[in-house]
Amino acid sequence: MKKDYLQIIKDLLGIVFLIFHLYLIFSGLIPNIIQRSVHLCLALPIIYLYFPIKKSKTKLISDILLASLSFITSIYIAINYKKIIYQYGIVDGKLQILLAIIMILLILEATRRCVKPALPIISFLFLMYAFFGHLLPGHFGHVQLTPSTILGMLYLTTNGIWGMIVGISVNIIVIFIMFGAFMVESGGGKGFINFSLKLAGRFKGGPAKVAVLSSALFGSISGSASANVATTGVFTIPMMKKLKYDKSFAAGVEAAASSGGQIMPPIMGAGIFIMAELIQIPYLKIALSATLPAILYFYAIGIGIHFYSLKENKKSIDPQNIPSTLETLKTSGFFILPLFTLLYFLFRGYTPQYSAFWAFFTVVILFCFNINWQIDFKSIWPKFYRGFTNGARQAAVIASITACASIIIGIINQTGLGIKLSSFILDFSKENLLLALFLTMGTSFILGMEVPTTAAYLVAAVIGAPALIKLGIIPLAAHLFIFYFAIISAITPPVCGAVYIASGIADANWVKSAKYALILGFSAFLVPYLFVYDNSFLLKGSNLDILYSIVRSLVSITIISSAVIGFLSRKLNLWERGIILISGILVIIKSLLFNITGLGMLFILFFIMRKVDEQKSLSLDKSLE
Protein backbone atom coordinates (compact mmCIF):
# COMPACT_ATOMS: atom_id res chain seq x y z
CA MET A 1 0.00 0.00 0.00
CA LYS A 2 2.88 2.35 0.84
CA LYS A 3 4.34 1.69 -2.58
CA ASP A 4 0.97 2.63 -4.09
CA TYR A 5 1.02 5.95 -2.22
CA LEU A 6 4.57 6.56 -3.38
CA GLN A 7 3.58 5.87 -6.99
CA ILE A 8 0.67 8.31 -6.64
CA ILE A 9 3.10 10.98 -5.41
CA LYS A 10 5.43 10.31 -8.36
CA ASP A 11 2.52 10.44 -10.79
CA LEU A 12 1.23 13.70 -9.32
CA LEU A 13 4.70 15.25 -9.53
CA GLY A 14 4.95 14.14 -13.17
CA ILE A 15 1.53 15.57 -14.07
CA VAL A 16 2.20 18.88 -12.28
CA PHE A 17 5.64 19.03 -13.94
CA LEU A 18 4.06 18.61 -17.39
CA ILE A 19 1.21 21.08 -16.76
CA PHE A 20 3.58 23.72 -15.32
CA HIS A 21 5.84 23.65 -18.38
CA LEU A 22 2.90 23.66 -20.82
CA TYR A 23 1.50 26.66 -18.91
CA LEU A 24 4.78 28.55 -19.24
CA ILE A 25 4.57 28.41 -23.06
CA PHE A 26 1.37 30.47 -23.08
CA SER A 27 1.71 32.42 -19.83
CA GLY A 28 2.71 36.03 -19.53
CA LEU A 29 6.02 37.21 -18.15
CA ILE A 30 6.88 35.22 -15.04
CA PRO A 31 10.18 36.26 -13.44
CA ASN A 32 13.00 33.96 -14.52
CA ILE A 33 14.04 33.13 -10.99
CA ILE A 34 10.49 31.91 -10.18
CA GLN A 35 10.29 29.73 -13.32
CA ARG A 36 13.65 28.14 -12.62
CA SER A 37 13.15 27.55 -8.91
CA VAL A 38 9.73 25.93 -9.47
CA HIS A 39 11.31 23.84 -12.25
CA LEU A 40 13.88 22.42 -9.83
CA CYS A 41 11.46 22.11 -6.92
CA LEU A 42 9.56 19.59 -9.09
CA ALA A 43 12.49 18.01 -10.96
CA LEU A 44 14.72 17.18 -7.97
CA PRO A 45 12.01 15.33 -5.99
CA ILE A 46 11.20 13.32 -9.14
CA ILE A 47 14.84 12.22 -9.29
CA TYR A 48 15.01 11.27 -5.61
CA LEU A 49 11.82 9.20 -5.91
CA TYR A 50 12.57 7.59 -9.29
CA PHE A 51 16.26 6.93 -8.54
CA PRO A 52 16.26 5.61 -4.94
CA ILE A 53 19.48 4.52 -3.21
CA LYS A 54 18.14 1.06 -2.44
CA LYS A 55 14.72 -0.47 -2.12
CA SER A 56 14.39 -0.67 1.66
CA LYS A 57 12.16 1.04 4.20
CA THR A 58 15.01 3.03 5.78
CA LYS A 59 16.35 4.16 2.43
CA LEU A 60 12.85 5.08 1.29
CA ILE A 61 12.46 7.43 4.26
CA SER A 62 15.79 9.09 3.41
CA ASP A 63 14.74 9.47 -0.24
CA ILE A 64 11.46 11.12 0.80
CA LEU A 65 13.38 13.40 3.19
CA LEU A 66 15.82 14.46 0.45
CA ALA A 67 12.94 15.00 -1.98
CA SER A 68 11.20 17.20 0.61
CA LEU A 69 14.37 19.19 1.30
CA SER A 70 14.95 19.78 -2.43
CA PHE A 71 11.37 21.05 -2.71
CA ILE A 72 11.79 23.40 0.29
CA THR A 73 15.18 24.84 -0.74
CA SER A 74 13.95 25.51 -4.29
CA ILE A 75 10.51 26.88 -3.46
CA TYR A 76 12.07 29.24 -0.88
CA ILE A 77 13.52 31.21 -3.80
CA ALA A 78 10.17 31.45 -5.60
CA ILE A 79 8.33 32.57 -2.45
CA ASN A 80 10.93 35.17 -1.44
CA TYR A 81 12.01 36.33 -4.92
CA LYS A 82 11.00 39.99 -4.37
CA LYS A 83 13.36 40.25 -1.43
CA ILE A 84 16.10 38.12 -3.05
CA ILE A 85 16.39 40.11 -6.29
CA TYR A 86 17.33 43.20 -4.26
CA GLN A 87 19.99 41.35 -2.26
CA TYR A 88 22.24 41.12 -5.37
CA GLY A 89 23.77 37.87 -4.13
CA ILE A 90 24.49 39.12 -0.59
CA VAL A 91 23.29 36.50 1.90
CA ASP A 92 20.96 37.68 4.64
CA GLY A 93 21.54 35.58 7.72
CA LYS A 94 22.57 32.03 8.55
CA LEU A 95 19.34 30.53 7.17
CA GLN A 96 20.21 31.46 3.59
CA ILE A 97 23.75 30.13 4.02
CA LEU A 98 22.34 26.83 5.30
CA LEU A 99 19.78 26.62 2.48
CA ALA A 100 22.48 27.37 -0.10
CA ILE A 101 24.73 24.58 1.21
CA ILE A 102 21.82 22.11 1.30
CA MET A 103 20.69 23.10 -2.21
CA ILE A 104 24.16 22.59 -3.70
CA LEU A 105 24.57 19.20 -1.99
CA LEU A 106 21.10 18.10 -3.13
CA ILE A 107 21.90 19.00 -6.74
CA LEU A 108 25.19 17.10 -6.61
CA GLU A 109 23.53 14.01 -5.09
CA ALA A 110 20.58 14.10 -7.52
CA THR A 111 22.96 14.29 -10.48
CA ARG A 112 25.08 11.47 -9.05
CA ARG A 113 22.01 9.26 -8.82
CA CYS A 114 20.64 9.76 -12.32
CA VAL A 115 23.91 10.05 -14.27
CA LYS A 116 27.45 8.90 -13.52
CA PRO A 117 29.33 10.52 -10.60
CA ALA A 118 31.86 12.31 -12.81
CA LEU A 119 29.81 15.51 -13.26
CA PRO A 120 29.11 16.00 -9.52
CA ILE A 121 32.78 15.31 -8.80
CA ILE A 122 33.84 17.93 -11.35
CA SER A 123 31.34 20.38 -9.87
CA PHE A 124 32.73 19.68 -6.39
CA LEU A 125 36.29 20.30 -7.63
CA PHE A 126 35.19 23.64 -9.09
CA LEU A 127 33.62 24.49 -5.73
CA MET A 128 36.92 23.69 -4.04
CA TYR A 129 38.65 25.94 -6.59
CA ALA A 130 36.25 28.78 -5.73
CA PHE A 131 36.93 28.42 -2.00
CA PHE A 132 40.68 27.73 -2.12
CA GLY A 133 41.84 28.86 -5.57
CA HIS A 134 43.35 32.02 -4.11
CA LEU A 135 46.04 29.82 -2.57
CA LEU A 136 47.23 28.69 -6.01
CA PRO A 137 50.35 30.46 -7.24
CA GLY A 138 50.71 31.96 -10.70
CA HIS A 139 48.28 32.27 -13.57
CA PHE A 140 45.46 30.09 -12.22
CA GLY A 141 45.12 31.72 -8.79
CA HIS A 142 42.23 34.15 -8.17
CA VAL A 143 41.23 36.88 -5.75
CA GLN A 144 40.11 35.48 -2.39
CA LEU A 145 36.33 35.07 -2.18
CA THR A 146 34.46 34.68 1.09
CA PRO A 147 32.20 31.61 1.50
CA SER A 148 29.14 33.85 1.76
CA THR A 149 30.06 35.57 -1.55
CA ILE A 150 30.35 32.22 -3.36
CA LEU A 151 27.18 30.76 -1.83
CA GLY A 152 25.24 33.97 -2.41
CA MET A 153 26.22 34.06 -6.10
CA LEU A 154 25.22 30.40 -6.58
CA TYR A 155 21.95 30.40 -4.61
CA LEU A 156 20.60 33.94 -4.71
CA THR A 157 21.33 35.17 -8.24
CA THR A 158 20.74 34.17 -11.85
CA ASN A 159 24.51 33.88 -12.31
CA GLY A 160 24.58 30.55 -10.47
CA ILE A 161 22.08 27.72 -10.06
CA TRP A 162 19.19 29.79 -11.42
CA GLY A 163 21.16 30.88 -14.47
CA MET A 164 20.53 30.87 -18.19
CA ILE A 165 21.32 27.15 -18.57
CA VAL A 166 18.54 26.07 -16.20
CA GLY A 167 16.33 28.64 -17.94
CA ILE A 168 16.78 26.82 -21.25
CA SER A 169 15.87 23.55 -19.53
CA VAL A 170 12.68 25.19 -18.22
CA ASN A 171 11.54 26.97 -21.36
CA ILE A 172 12.64 24.72 -24.22
CA ILE A 173 14.22 21.38 -23.36
CA VAL A 174 11.35 19.98 -21.25
CA ILE A 175 8.69 20.37 -23.95
CA PHE A 176 10.96 18.78 -26.57
CA ILE A 177 11.69 15.83 -24.28
CA MET A 178 7.99 15.41 -23.58
CA PHE A 179 7.29 15.57 -27.31
CA GLY A 180 9.85 12.82 -27.99
CA ALA A 181 8.63 10.58 -25.15
CA PHE A 182 4.99 10.94 -26.23
CA MET A 183 5.85 10.31 -29.90
CA VAL A 184 7.55 7.01 -29.07
CA GLU A 185 4.45 5.90 -27.13
CA SER A 186 2.09 6.92 -29.95
CA GLY A 187 3.71 4.44 -32.36
CA GLY A 188 6.46 6.66 -33.71
CA GLY A 189 9.16 4.25 -32.47
CA LYS A 190 7.71 1.38 -34.49
CA GLY A 191 7.36 3.76 -37.42
CA PHE A 192 11.09 4.54 -37.34
CA ILE A 193 11.97 0.82 -37.40
CA ASN A 194 9.53 -0.10 -40.19
CA PHE A 195 10.59 2.85 -42.33
CA SER A 196 14.25 1.89 -41.90
CA LEU A 197 13.58 -1.78 -42.67
CA LYS A 198 11.70 -0.88 -45.84
CA LEU A 199 14.33 1.57 -47.05
CA ALA A 200 17.57 -0.26 -46.17
CA GLY A 201 16.71 -3.87 -45.33
CA ARG A 202 16.95 -5.29 -48.85
CA PHE A 203 20.51 -4.05 -49.44
CA LYS A 204 23.81 -5.78 -48.68
CA GLY A 205 24.47 -5.48 -44.96
CA GLY A 206 20.80 -4.58 -44.50
CA PRO A 207 20.53 -5.17 -40.72
CA ALA A 208 23.46 -2.86 -39.95
CA LYS A 209 22.18 -0.20 -42.35
CA VAL A 210 18.75 -0.43 -40.70
CA ALA A 211 20.51 0.28 -37.38
CA VAL A 212 22.10 3.42 -38.87
CA LEU A 213 18.89 4.73 -40.42
CA SER A 214 16.65 3.96 -37.44
CA SER A 215 19.19 5.51 -35.05
CA ALA A 216 19.36 8.64 -37.20
CA LEU A 217 15.56 8.91 -37.23
CA PHE A 218 15.08 8.16 -33.54
CA GLY A 219 18.03 10.35 -32.60
CA SER A 220 16.42 13.27 -34.43
CA ILE A 221 13.77 13.40 -31.70
CA SER A 222 15.46 11.79 -28.68
CA GLY A 223 18.75 13.72 -28.59
CA SER A 224 20.31 11.08 -26.31
CA ALA A 225 22.85 8.43 -27.31
CA SER A 226 21.93 6.16 -24.39
CA ALA A 227 18.19 6.39 -25.06
CA ASN A 228 18.86 5.80 -28.75
CA VAL A 229 20.90 2.64 -28.11
CA ALA A 230 18.40 1.33 -25.58
CA THR A 231 15.43 1.92 -27.91
CA THR A 232 16.70 0.88 -31.36
CA GLY A 233 19.47 -1.46 -30.18
CA VAL A 234 17.09 -4.00 -28.63
CA PHE A 235 15.72 -4.55 -32.16
CA THR A 236 18.72 -4.06 -34.46
CA ILE A 237 21.43 -5.87 -32.46
CA PRO A 238 19.54 -9.21 -32.17
CA MET A 239 18.65 -8.90 -35.88
CA MET A 240 22.34 -8.53 -36.82
CA LYS A 241 23.37 -11.41 -34.55
CA LYS A 242 20.68 -13.62 -36.09
CA LEU A 243 22.25 -13.08 -39.52
CA LYS A 244 25.69 -14.13 -38.20
CA TYR A 245 27.18 -10.67 -37.72
CA ASP A 246 29.96 -10.58 -35.13
CA LYS A 247 28.27 -9.50 -31.89
CA SER A 248 30.98 -6.93 -31.17
CA PHE A 249 30.50 -5.47 -34.65
CA ALA A 250 26.72 -5.30 -34.06
CA ALA A 251 27.29 -3.39 -30.81
CA GLY A 252 29.84 -1.10 -32.49
CA VAL A 253 27.41 -0.26 -35.31
CA GLU A 254 24.59 0.59 -32.91
CA ALA A 255 26.84 2.67 -30.63
CA ALA A 256 28.36 4.67 -33.50
CA ALA A 257 24.99 5.27 -35.16
CA SER A 258 23.15 6.15 -31.93
CA SER A 259 25.80 8.65 -30.84
CA GLY A 260 25.23 10.63 -34.03
CA GLY A 261 21.55 11.03 -33.20
CA GLN A 262 22.34 14.14 -31.15
CA ILE A 263 23.57 16.00 -34.23
CA MET A 264 20.63 15.00 -36.42
CA PRO A 265 18.05 17.79 -36.89
CA PRO A 266 15.36 18.77 -36.18
CA ILE A 267 15.69 18.34 -32.40
CA MET A 268 19.31 17.23 -31.87
CA GLY A 269 20.62 17.12 -28.28
CA ALA A 270 19.65 19.40 -25.41
CA GLY A 271 22.98 21.17 -25.88
CA ILE A 272 21.80 22.70 -29.16
CA PHE A 273 19.31 24.91 -27.31
CA ILE A 274 22.07 26.05 -24.97
CA MET A 275 24.23 26.79 -28.00
CA ALA A 276 21.49 28.94 -29.53
CA GLU A 277 21.42 31.03 -26.35
CA LEU A 278 25.21 31.26 -26.01
CA ILE A 279 25.89 32.46 -29.56
CA GLN A 280 22.55 34.24 -30.04
CA ILE A 281 21.71 32.44 -33.28
CA PRO A 282 18.14 31.11 -33.76
CA TYR A 283 17.72 27.39 -33.10
CA LEU A 284 16.31 26.76 -36.59
CA LYS A 285 19.34 28.38 -38.24
CA ILE A 286 21.70 26.18 -36.21
CA ALA A 287 19.67 23.07 -37.07
CA LEU A 288 19.78 23.90 -40.79
CA SER A 289 23.52 24.61 -40.66
CA ALA A 290 24.12 21.30 -38.86
CA THR A 291 22.18 19.27 -41.44
CA LEU A 292 25.04 18.57 -43.86
CA PRO A 293 27.56 17.59 -41.11
CA ALA A 294 24.91 15.24 -39.68
CA ILE A 295 24.26 13.65 -43.07
CA LEU A 296 28.01 13.23 -43.62
CA TYR A 297 28.33 11.58 -40.19
CA PHE A 298 25.70 8.96 -40.96
CA TYR A 299 26.95 8.54 -44.52
CA ALA A 300 30.41 7.78 -43.12
CA ILE A 301 28.96 5.11 -40.80
CA GLY A 302 26.75 3.71 -43.58
CA ILE A 303 29.46 3.47 -46.25
CA GLY A 304 31.79 1.86 -43.69
CA ILE A 305 29.12 -0.79 -43.06
CA HIS A 306 28.69 -1.24 -46.82
CA PHE A 307 32.39 -1.99 -47.37
CA TYR A 308 32.49 -4.27 -44.31
CA SER A 309 29.44 -6.19 -45.59
CA LEU A 310 31.07 -6.64 -49.01
CA LYS A 311 34.34 -7.71 -47.40
CA GLU A 312 32.66 -10.27 -45.11
CA ASN A 313 29.93 -11.18 -47.64
CA LYS A 314 27.06 -10.29 -45.32
CA LYS A 315 23.51 -10.88 -46.50
CA SER A 316 20.51 -8.61 -46.70
CA ILE A 317 17.40 -9.11 -44.57
CA ASP A 318 14.96 -11.83 -45.60
CA PRO A 319 12.16 -10.11 -47.60
CA GLN A 320 9.61 -11.86 -45.37
CA ASN A 321 10.92 -9.83 -42.41
CA ILE A 322 10.57 -6.52 -44.24
CA PRO A 323 7.19 -4.81 -43.72
CA SER A 324 4.92 -4.20 -46.68
CA THR A 325 4.60 -0.76 -48.22
CA LEU A 326 1.12 -0.35 -46.70
CA GLU A 327 2.31 -1.31 -43.20
CA THR A 328 5.28 1.04 -43.53
CA LEU A 329 3.05 3.93 -44.57
CA LYS A 330 0.65 3.24 -41.70
CA THR A 331 3.31 3.24 -38.98
CA SER A 332 5.39 6.05 -40.52
CA GLY A 333 2.48 8.43 -40.14
CA PHE A 334 2.98 8.37 -36.37
CA PHE A 335 6.31 10.18 -36.70
CA ILE A 336 5.88 12.01 -40.03
CA LEU A 337 2.81 14.01 -38.92
CA PRO A 338 4.31 15.32 -35.63
CA LEU A 339 7.65 16.13 -37.28
CA PHE A 340 5.85 17.91 -40.12
CA THR A 341 3.90 19.95 -37.54
CA LEU A 342 7.11 20.85 -35.72
CA LEU A 343 8.89 21.94 -38.90
CA TYR A 344 5.84 23.82 -40.19
CA PHE A 345 5.71 26.07 -37.11
CA LEU A 346 9.50 26.48 -36.98
CA PHE A 347 9.67 27.62 -40.61
CA ARG A 348 6.73 29.97 -40.01
CA GLY A 349 8.97 31.77 -37.51
CA TYR A 350 7.42 30.61 -34.24
CA THR A 351 9.59 29.93 -31.18
CA PRO A 352 10.97 26.40 -30.70
CA GLN A 353 8.86 25.80 -27.58
CA TYR A 354 5.64 26.99 -29.28
CA SER A 355 6.39 24.77 -32.30
CA ALA A 356 7.14 21.80 -30.03
CA PHE A 357 3.85 22.32 -28.19
CA TRP A 358 1.80 21.93 -31.36
CA ALA A 359 3.85 18.91 -32.39
CA PHE A 360 3.19 17.52 -28.89
CA PHE A 361 -0.53 18.27 -29.29
CA THR A 362 -0.50 16.39 -32.63
CA VAL A 363 0.96 13.34 -30.87
CA VAL A 364 -1.74 13.50 -28.19
CA ILE A 365 -4.38 13.40 -30.94
CA LEU A 366 -2.62 10.37 -32.46
CA PHE A 367 -3.06 8.60 -29.10
CA CYS A 368 -6.67 8.06 -30.17
CA PHE A 369 -5.57 5.65 -32.91
CA ASN A 370 -3.97 2.23 -32.81
CA ILE A 371 -1.21 1.12 -35.17
CA ASN A 372 -3.80 0.36 -37.90
CA TRP A 373 -5.30 3.86 -37.64
CA GLN A 374 -8.46 2.60 -36.00
CA ILE A 375 -9.94 4.64 -33.18
CA ASP A 376 -8.98 3.05 -29.87
CA PHE A 377 -9.97 5.12 -26.85
CA LYS A 378 -8.96 2.38 -24.40
CA SER A 379 -5.28 2.84 -25.22
CA ILE A 380 -5.24 6.63 -24.70
CA TRP A 381 -4.59 6.62 -20.93
CA PRO A 382 -1.89 3.88 -20.96
CA LYS A 383 -0.01 5.75 -23.71
CA PHE A 384 -0.43 9.09 -21.96
CA TYR A 385 0.65 7.61 -18.62
CA ARG A 386 3.81 6.04 -20.06
CA GLY A 387 4.52 9.22 -21.99
CA PHE A 388 4.36 11.66 -19.10
CA THR A 389 6.15 9.35 -16.61
CA ASN A 390 9.02 8.62 -19.03
CA GLY A 391 9.11 12.23 -20.22
CA ALA A 392 9.07 13.71 -16.70
CA ARG A 393 11.85 11.36 -15.60
CA GLN A 394 14.02 12.19 -18.64
CA ALA A 395 13.37 15.93 -18.28
CA ALA A 396 14.19 15.82 -14.56
CA VAL A 397 17.53 14.21 -15.37
CA ILE A 398 18.34 17.04 -17.81
CA ALA A 399 17.25 19.56 -15.16
CA SER A 400 19.72 18.15 -12.64
CA ILE A 401 22.50 18.10 -15.26
CA THR A 402 21.90 21.74 -16.17
CA ALA A 403 21.75 22.74 -12.48
CA CYS A 404 25.03 20.93 -11.81
CA ALA A 405 26.62 22.52 -14.88
CA SER A 406 25.31 25.93 -13.75
CA ILE A 407 27.39 25.61 -10.57
CA ILE A 408 30.48 25.06 -12.73
CA ILE A 409 29.68 27.95 -15.09
CA GLY A 410 28.92 30.30 -12.20
CA ILE A 411 32.30 29.57 -10.61
CA ILE A 412 34.16 29.86 -13.93
CA ASN A 413 32.65 33.31 -14.45
CA GLN A 414 33.10 34.47 -10.85
CA THR A 415 36.77 33.45 -10.67
CA GLY A 416 37.70 34.40 -14.23
CA LEU A 417 38.86 30.83 -14.88
CA GLY A 418 37.30 30.73 -18.35
CA ILE A 419 39.44 33.62 -19.59
CA LYS A 420 42.55 32.03 -18.05
CA LEU A 421 41.93 28.65 -19.71
CA SER A 422 41.21 30.26 -23.08
CA SER A 423 44.46 32.21 -22.76
CA PHE A 424 46.27 28.97 -21.91
CA ILE A 425 44.96 27.33 -25.12
CA LEU A 426 46.12 30.32 -27.17
CA ASP A 427 49.55 30.43 -25.49
CA PHE A 428 50.15 26.67 -25.65
CA SER A 429 49.10 26.44 -29.32
CA LYS A 430 51.11 29.59 -30.10
CA GLU A 431 47.96 30.74 -31.93
CA ASN A 432 48.24 27.82 -34.36
CA LEU A 433 44.65 26.99 -35.35
CA LEU A 434 45.16 23.25 -35.93
CA LEU A 435 46.88 22.78 -32.57
CA ALA A 436 44.17 24.83 -30.83
CA LEU A 437 41.55 22.60 -32.47
CA PHE A 438 43.36 19.47 -31.23
CA LEU A 439 43.48 20.88 -27.68
CA THR A 440 39.78 21.79 -27.77
CA MET A 441 38.90 18.38 -29.22
CA GLY A 442 40.86 16.75 -26.40
CA THR A 443 39.01 18.84 -23.81
CA SER A 444 35.65 17.76 -25.29
CA PHE A 445 36.76 14.11 -25.28
CA ILE A 446 37.98 14.20 -21.68
CA LEU A 447 34.85 15.92 -20.40
CA GLY A 448 32.58 13.72 -22.53
CA MET A 449 34.06 10.48 -21.21
CA GLU A 450 31.95 10.48 -18.05
CA VAL A 451 29.99 13.73 -18.24
CA PRO A 452 26.65 13.94 -20.13
CA THR A 453 26.93 15.59 -23.55
CA THR A 454 25.05 18.74 -22.55
CA ALA A 455 27.34 19.49 -19.60
CA ALA A 456 30.48 18.39 -21.49
CA TYR A 457 29.65 20.73 -24.38
CA LEU A 458 28.79 23.62 -22.06
CA VAL A 459 31.99 23.47 -20.00
CA ALA A 460 34.19 22.85 -23.05
CA ALA A 461 32.50 25.74 -24.90
CA VAL A 462 33.13 28.17 -22.04
CA ILE A 463 36.79 27.10 -22.00
CA GLY A 464 37.59 26.52 -25.67
CA ALA A 465 35.18 28.51 -27.85
CA PRO A 466 36.57 31.99 -27.01
CA ALA A 467 40.08 30.85 -28.04
CA LEU A 468 38.85 29.38 -31.34
CA ILE A 469 36.80 32.49 -32.12
CA LYS A 470 39.84 34.68 -31.40
CA LEU A 471 41.76 32.63 -33.97
CA GLY A 472 39.20 33.56 -36.63
CA ILE A 473 36.64 30.73 -36.52
CA ILE A 474 33.03 31.91 -36.75
CA PRO A 475 31.12 31.31 -33.47
CA LEU A 476 28.71 28.78 -35.01
CA ALA A 477 31.57 26.62 -36.37
CA ALA A 478 33.51 26.86 -33.08
CA HIS A 479 30.55 25.76 -30.97
CA LEU A 480 29.43 23.01 -33.37
CA PHE A 481 33.02 21.70 -33.40
CA ILE A 482 32.97 21.37 -29.60
CA PHE A 483 29.42 19.97 -29.55
CA TYR A 484 30.30 17.38 -32.21
CA PHE A 485 33.29 16.00 -30.30
CA ALA A 486 31.42 16.04 -26.97
CA ILE A 487 28.96 13.71 -28.71
CA ILE A 488 31.56 11.44 -30.35
CA SER A 489 33.18 10.93 -26.94
CA ALA A 490 30.36 8.41 -26.32
CA ILE A 491 32.28 5.92 -28.53
CA THR A 492 35.87 6.82 -27.59
CA PRO A 493 37.64 4.65 -24.99
CA PRO A 494 38.43 4.33 -22.18
CA VAL A 495 34.98 5.52 -21.09
CA CYS A 496 32.33 5.20 -23.80
CA GLY A 497 28.76 5.11 -22.52
CA ALA A 498 27.02 4.23 -25.78
CA VAL A 499 29.42 1.32 -26.37
CA TYR A 500 28.83 -0.04 -22.84
CA ILE A 501 25.05 -0.11 -23.32
CA ALA A 502 25.25 -1.61 -26.82
CA SER A 503 27.76 -4.24 -25.65
CA GLY A 504 25.42 -5.17 -22.81
CA ILE A 505 22.55 -5.74 -25.24
CA ALA A 506 24.80 -7.74 -27.60
CA ASP A 507 26.55 -9.64 -24.78
CA ALA A 508 29.82 -8.57 -26.40
CA ASN A 509 33.28 -7.47 -25.31
CA TRP A 510 33.12 -3.68 -24.97
CA VAL A 511 36.74 -3.18 -26.10
CA LYS A 512 36.09 -4.99 -29.39
CA SER A 513 32.80 -3.12 -29.79
CA ALA A 514 34.59 0.21 -29.26
CA LYS A 515 37.17 -0.80 -31.88
CA TYR A 516 34.45 -1.42 -34.47
CA ALA A 517 32.66 1.81 -33.53
CA LEU A 518 35.88 3.79 -34.05
CA ILE A 519 36.67 2.04 -37.35
CA LEU A 520 33.19 2.77 -38.70
CA GLY A 521 33.27 6.31 -37.37
CA PHE A 522 36.83 7.09 -38.52
CA SER A 523 35.74 9.26 -41.45
CA ALA A 524 33.15 10.95 -39.25
CA PHE A 525 35.96 12.34 -37.06
CA LEU A 526 37.06 14.47 -40.02
CA VAL A 527 33.71 16.23 -40.45
CA PRO A 528 34.16 18.93 -37.72
CA TYR A 529 37.51 19.92 -39.22
CA LEU A 530 35.80 20.28 -42.60
CA PHE A 531 33.24 22.84 -41.46
CA VAL A 532 35.81 24.74 -39.37
CA TYR A 533 38.11 25.27 -42.35
CA ASP A 534 35.33 25.56 -44.93
CA ASN A 535 32.05 27.18 -43.83
CA SER A 536 30.25 26.00 -46.96
CA PHE A 537 29.71 22.73 -45.04
CA LEU A 538 27.48 24.82 -42.75
CA LEU A 539 25.52 25.90 -45.86
CA LYS A 540 27.23 29.29 -45.94
CA GLY A 541 28.44 30.74 -49.24
CA SER A 542 27.34 30.32 -52.85
CA ASN A 543 25.32 27.32 -54.03
CA LEU A 544 28.26 26.28 -56.23
CA ASP A 545 30.65 26.26 -53.23
CA ILE A 546 28.18 24.23 -51.19
CA LEU A 547 27.67 21.73 -54.04
CA TYR A 548 31.46 21.40 -54.52
CA SER A 549 31.88 20.74 -50.78
CA ILE A 550 29.12 18.12 -50.75
CA VAL A 551 30.52 16.22 -53.74
CA ARG A 552 34.14 16.16 -52.61
CA SER A 553 33.23 15.24 -49.01
CA LEU A 554 31.04 12.32 -50.13
CA VAL A 555 33.74 11.06 -52.51
CA SER A 556 36.48 11.53 -49.92
CA ILE A 557 34.56 9.81 -47.11
CA THR A 558 33.84 6.89 -49.46
CA ILE A 559 37.53 6.56 -50.36
CA ILE A 560 38.77 6.90 -46.77
CA SER A 561 36.21 4.38 -45.49
CA SER A 562 37.36 1.94 -48.17
CA ALA A 563 40.95 2.29 -46.92
CA VAL A 564 40.03 1.95 -43.24
CA ILE A 565 37.80 -1.11 -43.78
CA GLY A 566 40.27 -2.63 -46.26
CA PHE A 567 37.96 -3.29 -49.21
CA LEU A 568 37.39 -1.71 -52.61
CA SER A 569 36.62 -4.17 -55.40
CA ARG A 570 38.35 -6.83 -53.30
CA LYS A 571 40.21 -7.09 -49.99
CA LEU A 572 43.13 -4.64 -49.88
CA ASN A 573 46.66 -5.18 -48.67
CA LEU A 574 48.46 -2.68 -46.45
CA TRP A 575 50.19 -0.60 -49.14
CA GLU A 576 47.00 -0.37 -51.21
CA ARG A 577 45.11 0.88 -48.18
CA GLY A 578 47.82 3.48 -47.54
CA ILE A 579 47.64 4.87 -51.10
CA ILE A 580 43.83 4.94 -51.02
CA LEU A 581 43.87 6.76 -47.66
CA ILE A 582 46.26 9.42 -49.04
CA SER A 583 44.08 9.86 -52.15
CA GLY A 584 41.00 10.30 -49.93
CA ILE A 585 42.73 12.99 -47.87
CA LEU A 586 43.78 14.82 -51.07
CA VAL A 587 40.20 14.77 -52.35
CA ILE A 588 38.83 16.33 -49.16
CA ILE A 589 41.16 19.37 -49.33
CA LYS A 590 39.58 22.43 -50.93
CA SER A 591 41.92 22.55 -53.92
CA LEU A 592 41.04 21.43 -57.44
CA LEU A 593 44.68 20.43 -58.04
CA PHE A 594 44.75 18.24 -54.91
CA ASN A 595 41.35 16.76 -55.76
CA ILE A 596 42.42 15.79 -59.29
CA THR A 597 45.70 14.38 -57.95
CA GLY A 598 43.87 12.27 -55.37
CA LEU A 599 41.38 10.90 -57.90
CA GLY A 600 44.21 10.28 -60.36
CA MET A 601 46.09 8.24 -57.73
CA LEU A 602 42.95 6.21 -57.05
CA PHE A 603 42.27 5.45 -60.73
CA ILE A 604 45.91 4.47 -61.38
CA LEU A 605 45.87 2.16 -58.34
CA PHE A 606 42.55 0.66 -59.44
CA PHE A 607 43.97 0.04 -62.93
CA ILE A 608 47.11 -1.63 -61.46
CA MET A 609 44.97 -3.74 -59.11
CA ARG A 610 42.88 -4.99 -62.03
CA LYS A 611 45.97 -5.88 -64.07
CA VAL A 612 47.59 -7.70 -61.12
CA ASP A 613 44.36 -9.57 -60.39
CA GLU A 614 44.01 -10.57 -64.06
CA GLN A 615 47.60 -11.88 -64.12
CA LYS A 616 46.98 -13.86 -60.91
CA SER A 617 43.82 -15.29 -62.43
CA LEU A 618 45.69 -16.32 -65.62
CA SER A 619 48.50 -17.88 -63.58
CA LEU A 620 45.95 -19.83 -61.53
CA ASP A 621 44.19 -21.06 -64.68
CA LYS A 622 47.50 -22.24 -66.18
CA SER A 623 48.45 -24.07 -63.00
CA LEU A 624 45.13 -25.91 -63.07
CA GLU A 625 45.56 -27.03 -66.71
Task: Give a verbal description of the structure.
The chain has 625 residues and is mostly helical. The protein has a domain at 543-624. 76% of the residues lie in helices and 0% in strands. The longest helix has 37 residues, at 164-200. The radius of gyration is 26 Å and the shape is globular. The relative contact order is 0.10.
Short description:
The protein has helices at residues 2-26, 32-50, 57-79, 81-84, 94-114, 118-132, 147-156, 164-200, 206-222, 225-242, 247-259, 271-279, 283-289, 291-312, 325-347, 352-366, 380-415, 417-429, 433-450, 453-470, 475-488, 497-506, 510-520, 527-533, 543-565, 574-588, 592-624. The chain is an all-alpha fold and 625 residues long. The protein has a domain at 543-624.
Total number of strands: 0
Largest sheet: none
Assign the structural class, choosing from mainly alpha, mainly beta, alpha/beta, alpha+beta, or little secondary structure.
mainly alpha
The helical percent reads over 70%
Average pLDDT reading: 88
* Shape call: globular
H/E series: HHHHHHHHHHHHHHHHHHHHHHHHHHH
How large a portion of the residues is in β-strands, by DSSP E? under 5%
Instruction: Kindly report how far apart the N and C termini lie.
Output: 85 Å
Low-confidence stretches: none
How many individual helices? 27
Rg calculated over all Cα atoms: 26 Å
